[in-house]
Amino acid sequence: MLYQALTAVFCILSAFSALAAAQTASNASLLDPSLYKNVNVSRGLVYHYYYSPPSQVGRPTLLLLHGFPSTSYDWRHQVAFFQDEGYGLVVPDMLGYGGTAKPVDPEFYESSLISRDMVDLLDAENVNETIVIGHDWGSKIVGRLANYFPERFSAFAFFSLGYFPPAVLERSYAELNNITEQVFGYGIFGYWGFFSTEGADNIIESHLDSFFDVTFPADNIFWITDFAPPGALQAWLEANRSTAAGSYITPEERASQIDAMRDEGMTAALCWYEIMTSTIERDDDQGIPQENLTIKKPVFLGAALEDYVAVAATQIAAILQVSENTTTIQQYDSGHWVILEAKDQVNSDLLSWIENL
Fold it and tell me: Coiled-coil stretches, from where to where (predicted)?
């Protein structure tokens, strides 16, 4: 009897051990370090990117573009899923992040230049046509790729942030904040001003745990009260406040991302905001060909209903205004980090959309 009980316990422990090992292996394989490459793009900057060619005949390659304050690691759940489905993947650390170059002159971050960088990456892998998918500022680049290089892409997908119309920046940053305060009751772009202020990088780097909490909160209302409005984020950080982070990020992932931000610093990443609060991006957008201001190929928008900066209703309205082709819109009960928080539904919806193109 004792022998049988001990055998049962041993079997249970072995099963748990095997499950844990399988889970560890699965997590480790999400972004295989051996599949990363470096390439010098045409303007002389080094980009670090993940590349996996299609493993099934007829499967296209997907270009996945992350936003602030992240790296290609943001796409870990999509990479694992679509790689298993046989799709090719090009997943760069965007300019200012990860293993990619980190210039601190904001003019390096003009969308036309970064769009050209993305095409250079595709050329390096001889990918002639692809589907591009973005989140956050990665979505802004998706839109500019549609503006500048529509012939290189068969479809365009946006998550959280949709198409960013150049006309928005015809108004000054101050005007935009005033308008959003009147419409929503708080200035949704207020944090841009803080990010564009000299010394913001040092404040963030001195309070990385506090910054992580409010950037990836379990309760998305914090973006209304303590993230978006002018002055709110700086006050939060300087008080070193904390809150529970979202459960969609494990403690190990949190530690890894905070370590990366500490090692890389925040100076370069904040340039993505400096071009928005100055005239750099507005002036750059003047080069968009007028005939490309609308998107003539299929579009997917994944709107996050609890994103209180990239407000779902405004993103849907913007995408419908510019899309001249089939537009697929999915809405998720999620905050801004929809590709993490609603990963399974996102993957399923994207796969269905791609298979029906």
Answer: none
